Structure formats: structure tokens, C-alpha cells
Amino acid sequence: MPTVASTDETLTGTGKPGAIINIKVNGRTARQTQVAADGRWTFPLEIGLNSNVTGGAQLVPANKISVSQTVNGQESGDTDVNVSLGHSEILPSSKSKQQNNLVENDRNVTLKVPHDAGAAYFQFTDTNGKSQEVGLKRDAVPGKWQVNSSSSAIASVASSEDGKFYSTINLTLNKDMKAGTTARVISNMQEGSYSSLQGWQTRNVEAAPKDTTAPAKPVVNTDLTGKAGTKTPVEVSAESGSTVALYDKDGNKIGEGTAGSNGKVTITPTVDIPAGNVTAKATDAAGNTSEASNPKVATDTTAPAKPVVNTDLTGKAGTKTPVEVTAEKGSTVALYDKDNNKIGEATAGANGKATITPTVDIPAGNVTAKATDAAGNTSVASDPKVATDTTAPAKPVVNTDLTGKAGTKTPVEVTAEKGSTVALYDKKQQQDW
Q1: Considering Cα of 240, then 243, then 246, then 247, what sign does the dihedral take?
Q2: Where are the beta strands (DSSP E) in 151-305?
Q3: Distance from the CA of 190 to the CA of which of 80, 251, 360, 364 falls in 20 to 30 A?
């Protein structure tokens, strides 16, 4: 009979139809089977046989197997059965589109090696086109597999399991494989010794399927009440590894970060958060972007600082002299007279200043300013500046003809500055009214 492999699950051979085949271990009959009418016989094995053709050291004792044939009560001489180290295999990736290959970015590789092997070698090409070899060994059978010292940077053994015909090794690679290349595996009895007669066994590496699935909608966790106008860090829950961008109410990106393995990222805004809705979107490594999160509303509950009226209003009562006020940038600054009537308004620029041209002549007395931000928060009134009037009225004109009016109380019309108190005098400069 031909040489069998240590991973074969049956013994087969030929003989005289109806003859009894004697299967012997160490020269003693252990099992028997009968030759079929077609001259062939088959015997199922419960466990794999141990290699017996190495001639060198191995981790398991070699099985001495022989067969003989009994015909009409006469037994033939024994024929030795040569057992070689069996077949190795790379199992296809569960992610393979063709269901028969490895996948370039699937770093979990499962190997099946003969139950009696003490060493194995897995070779692949990395994404840089460089050939990589992972050496594997164990010190006893049964026993746990491990990578050898020269391979520890390339891969590790996630788990291994001994079976009746094969050992299964689950490898975790530290590098991706290159699509379009071929990976291969072979087993040895021990490191540097006899290899499987069946040689290297291969498996093609296919390209990873394109990821077209967008991440789930992120969730903004941070309460932004009262946080408008600040750079308060914002926590977002999103797909781990995704890039998470934070947006203001106008769709402007105001910050970005990467979600960790716990599915959370804390983003520090690059600008003060504007009042209004704040949302987040997550983009995965394949470029798929999620829909926007439900918004969190950033509100501003802090009133602007008290403005400062810069312009000296001495002698400015009764004029529309422009008034400069220092106030929170972007705020609306209103100017008030002594009776709290608004007499002008303007917006503070990026330099924090507003120049207000009064809509009416400034009345004499205190002039103050208040600043109101975009959220409607209004500051306390500024310290007052006093508007004074230092200009005398123009000379009045007596309009009434007083001819023949001496000795009477005839009313006298006078044209004078509006609002001014007009006094009438006689020739002795005595006030008559």
C-alpha cells in the first residue's frame, strides 16, 4: 500500500476480493477489515497516525504499522505502512467575498497543521510588498503553539487547540497582507527538521470589500446651557476610530477629534461656541459620513460687561456729537439720556468699540450706555458721563412795536433760543417779567 499522511482519516489498499486484511501495530493485529468485490479495502481511523519516516527526533513516538492479507486461512507476510507528516492548510477568511481566500485587512488567520507536527511556517506579503515569515513551534504534543522569538513583531498566537488529526492555530497578524498575493504554510516535525511531503499549501489574498456603511448617528452628551461664547469641551459618543466633527448652527466646523475604543471623544472647540444648535458628524476610515446628531442648544446666559462711555461730554449738551463707547464686541450698544430715553444705538466692532451718533440733541445731564448681546442678555448701565451746555443763547429779538405802550401791560413777543428762559428789562435794567 502507498505512503499515508498523518492527517489521513482512513487506511486504504488493494487485495484479493473477500480476503481479510490484518492491520497491525508493533507486529500485533489490532484491527481487521475485508477486501471488497472490486479488490479494494478501506479502514476508518479514530485518530491520526504518527509519522514514522523522519529518521530523526520528533515530539511523538513513531507508529510502527503493517498490514497482511489472510486468504483461505493463509496469512501473507507483513507489509510496512509508511506514515509521513500530514497536510497543512490555511482556512479561508470568513470575510472573503469569494469564500475561498484570505482578505488583505483581516489579520485573523487560522492554520490547520498535522496533529504530530512540532513546527510550522506561515509566509505572506505585506502591503509594502515585503515577504514576511511567521515561525511557530511547540515543545510537546499535545501542547500550546507559540511564535518563535524572531516572529514576535510580526504576529502572535491568539489560541491553539489539539485535535485527533489536526492542530488548529489562530494567528493574529500585526501587519495587513497585500491583495493579489499568495500566502502559504508548511509544517515540520520540529524546527529545522523534516517537512511535510505535501510541501507548501497556499491561499490567495483578495482585496477587502469596500466599506459603504456610514457610522451610526453620533450623540452630543455635553449640556451646552450657558456655554455659548465659551470653548467648553464637548463630549460626543460615536463609532470607535471615527473622526468626529462639531458644527455650529450655521454648519461651520468648530472642532474635531477621534473617537476612542470606548466610543467617546472630547472635542475642544477652536472658536467660542456661537449661541444656537450644535451638532456632530462621524466619518469612518473609508470616508463614510454619518447623519448629523440631534442638536444640543448652546445658550448664552451671561450679560456683557458694563460698558464705558469714553467721550467727554462737557459742553456737548444740545449737540449730536458722536459718542464712543467700549463694550463687548458684537453687542448692540444703546445710549440713554438722564431720563432714560434712548438717544442712539450702534454695534461694537471686533475692537470692542462702538461710535454712536445721537438721533436727537443730547440733553444736559447724565448720559449712560447699555450693551445687549446676541442672546438678549443686557449689561448694567455704564457709569454716567455728564453732558453740559457752555454756549450762551443767541441774542433775542423783541418783535412787538411798543410805540404808545408805555404805562401799559401790553404783551411783548420775543424771538429767542427755544426752551430758554427770556427776561424782559426796562431802561433801568429792572426786570419787568
Answers
A1: negative
A2: 155-162, 166-173, 182-188, 201-206, 219-220, 234-237, 243-247, 253-258, 264-267, 276-283, 296-298
A3: 80
Residue 187 backbone dihedrals phi, psi, to 5 degrees: -120, 150
Q: Which residues, 6 or more positions from 190, have their beta carbon under 8 angstroms from its beta carbon?
A: 56, 57, 58, 59, 118, 119, 137
Tens of pLDDT along 334-356?
A: 999 999 999 999 999 999 999 99
The residues that bridge with 169 in the sheet, in sequence order, are: 111, 160
Look up cell 457709569; give the residue: 383
Q: How far is CA 71 from CA 68, 80, 158, 352, in A?
A: 10, 19, 53, 114
pLDDT score recorded for residue 271: 96
Q: Quick one: pLDDT band at residue 1, thresholds 50, 70, 90?
A: low
pLDDT tens by residue, 41-90: 999 999 999 999 877 788 999 999 999 999 999 999 999 999 999 999 99
CA 350 – CA 330 distance, rounded (Å): 7
**Per the structure block, which three cell numbers stand in for 36?**
471488497
pTM metric for this prediction:
0.57
Do the Cβ atoms of 391 and 362 come closer than 8 Å? Answer: no
